[in-house]
Every structure is written in structure tokens, then in C-alpha cells.
What does this fold into?
Amino acid sequence: MTAAVSRLLLAGGTIHDPANDRDGVVADIWIEDGRIIAPPADPRGFTRIDASGLVVMPGGVDLHSHVAGPKVNAGRRIAPQLARQRPAAVPTIHATGAAYAALGYTTVFDAAIATAAARIAHTELADLPILDKGIYLLAADEAAVIAAVARNEARETARLVGDAIAAGRGWAVKVANPGGAAFWKHGRRGDHHDLDTPLPEHPALTPRLLLDRLVTAVETLGLPHPLHVHTANLGLPGNWRSLLETMKTFAGRRAHLAHVQFHSYSGGDLDEGSFGSGVAPLVEFFNAHDSLTLDVGQILFGDTVAMTGDAAAAEHLAHATGMPWMAHDLHLEGGCGVLPIAYREKSMVHAWQWAIGLEWFLTTTDPWRVALSTDHPNGAHFTAYPHLMQLLGDAAFRRAAFDRIHPAVRRRSPLKDLSREYTLQELCIITRAAPARIAGLPHKGHLGIGADADITLYRPDRDLARMFSMPAKVFKAGVLVAEDGHLRAAPSGHTLASRPVTP
Ligand SMILES: [Zn+2]
It folds into this structure.
């Protein structure tokens, strides 16, 4: 089914458009040729859609997900039993697009594709319907880039990174465990304690210097999204110090911190009793430094598949859980690890992870620097976003969930004292307005004149999970693509590729 209508009037909806300072105002939205336009002098020829009583928001933007490429396919192979879940833990590429659209999302980025796998990822993404989509390339894992960084050749570093982005049609540069693959491939994982350990083969280069020089390269190239950073020591007790040092390294420069929940743990190695939240000092630093942005990487309880460009972290997790795992892409420059994982509310570690993610959401002061994510499928499936939105917007619902988790976490987590509830406007910011701005998409995440007509209409409901899980109508570029959970059309989305400036 294709849409014949290119001129629409969404009449009388309740508009949530934080980028244009509209918080629940009743207004009309006019659409022509896939864009939002000013009210036309001649309204004839516009199809009127009654939006009265409905909440109108820009389409959702997921700036950190994993939906294509070799490690997603490895995820499908390693956990075939999870393919029978509804939704499948790692859906097919077509089902991924359909489920995102039915949820009101219209843009998605895969956050970790090895440069040499870019063509595979784009081939698959061509089959992901409806959404606009892009990839972040692990462009800094290439040996030639690391060598140029080690020689402190800024121009050559930027040229190599820019070439990778252009050839791989990437949107941004992702770094996963800076320098970590080098340690791991040399069998020296244990040597990699912090950001200041020299890399194997490059004694003058540390992860900290690598991060610093890559930020410079991304700035030189004028990429729309800042360096996307998954820092060292993911998942390890005591790793909050690595995240704090990472934030200090950027000192006033733009950088995006990925899935901070996985990097915010107190405690010492193998000492479960001391494991806990390291969020407070991190949030204090983050709140005071406007150039930094983040996504949370919330975990939610249930079965899923972990997949990461940080093979060392996957290996550690496999040893800790006894699950089978898969490492691959080592013939390419990026390393990836994949394994099934089941998050349980009675597990102390999992309960801490859950509480730590929510603590981040509830103690950051500026929603414009925060993107809602579960690091799909690592922390949870993206179809669980409405449940997460209810945890943020409904303190009583969150309290009931809190009362079911491991008792040691209930006693010690700062979450027990946090009563903040996200407003509809704030939920709108962290699911579309902020991620669009952070990702560098001026035509998305808002409903102003000239914006892409990516628009989601919800029925207002005190049950936020119900409200956000089934939009009444979803438009992509002005085409009705979903209605009450049913797919109405599946037009192709666009590939979002940035154009690096030649250094
Ligand atoms: Zn990720």
C-alpha cells in the first residue's frame, strides 16, 4: 500500500514540541511533500485528519541501538531460542523497522559498525523499512588510524577517519573501549587498568590521548554528531572512575557518552558485596559540564542478547555468567563480542544495574543532554521503551517495581529517595527532541516549519506504558505508516550519511 496523499492537515492536536517551546498547546500542523509547512493561503487540496484529543509529538529518534551488521547477525545465531520470543530478542531487519515504526519511532542509528563491515550493514539497512537510518563507524579501531594518532599527526588522523566515514557512509565516529581491542588482541587485557596505560606497540599512546585526539579529528571533519564514546572497563566494579576520567579528558569539548549505566559501578574486583552505585560523583560532574551529552543504556528485567564492539567486556561477561559467547570481526579491525543474557530482579548485580540507570535519569538536571536508550538489545529490547517511560513518569509505578528488587539494593540505592517524575514534555525531550539535537539532525525532533513530517499521535493515558506502546497514528515524511499497532505502509527511509570536511 502506498500513500497517495502528500498534503495533510493534522487538525487540533495537543502539541508537544519542546524545541519550539510548545508544551501542550492545541494547534494545527500543515504538511506538504513530507515536510511541515506554514499554514497555506489556500487550504484546498489538503486532507484533514482530526487530531483533537490526541497528543502530538515529533517521531522518536533512537541515537544508540544495534539493528544491523555482523554482530547483530551473530546475535540471531547465538540465541535462536530467543527468536521465538515476541518480540524476538534480535528481530529480523524488516521486523525491526516495523516494530520501531509501530512504536512511533522514525529514525534509528546503529551505534557500532566496523569500518570494513559498513557495506554489509548498509545492505541490510536498505531492507529496514520506514525509518531514516545511519551508522556510527568504529573508524578509530583501524591500525592505520591508531598509528597516526600515536604519531600525533592530527591532519593525517582526520584524513584517515574522514576517508573511512566517506567510504563507509557513516554518520559519526564511535570509539568502543578506547585502545581496548589492541590490549585484548595482544593477550594483555589485564594490563589495561585505566585511561593512562600505554597501548601495546604504541608506548607513547594511551586511551586518554586516543580519546583527546579523536575528538580533535571529529571537530576538524565537522561531523554533525560529536565523538560517540563507550569508555574503558564496561561492566566492571569500580569503573565509575574510568567514566569520570573520561569526562575530565574532554574538558569543555563536545563528546557523547554512551550507555553510562554500564560505566557507573562502585566496588572492587570480584567483591560482590561492595558493588553498588557510583552515579553521584559522575552526575555532579556531568551536570556542571554543558558540552557533554549521554544516553543511559537502561537495563530492564528479562531475556536479551548482549552485543558490543568491546570484545573484552563480552569475554568478561561470558566468564561471569557461564554463557556461551562469540567473538568475531577480529579479521576486521573492530572486535565484537556477543552472548545471551537474562536480567533478573532478584539478582543483586542486575538490580543494581536497573537502579543505577534510573538514578542517572532522575538526577541529571538538563533533559536536553540526555537520550533515552536501552542500548538495544544489550540492556533491553527497544519495544520496552514505553515501560521505561512509565518508570520515569510515574513514581508510584517505579516504587512498586523497586519493592520487588534484591533487598540489599533496596537498602542502599539512592533511588529509594528519588521522587522526581518526568513530565510529558520531558519524556518528549529525551525520546526525540534531545536525541535529534545531539545526533545533529536539524530537520528532526521538532514540529517547526521545514521539519520532516515525522509525527506521532498518542492517546493521552495515565498509564504511560499503554499510551506510548500503541500510538494512534504514526506519520513518516507525511505518510501514514502505522495506526493502533498496525502497519499501514512501509515506504523506504533515507540513509543518513555525513559529509566530512576535507582536512
Ligand atoms: Zn551499544
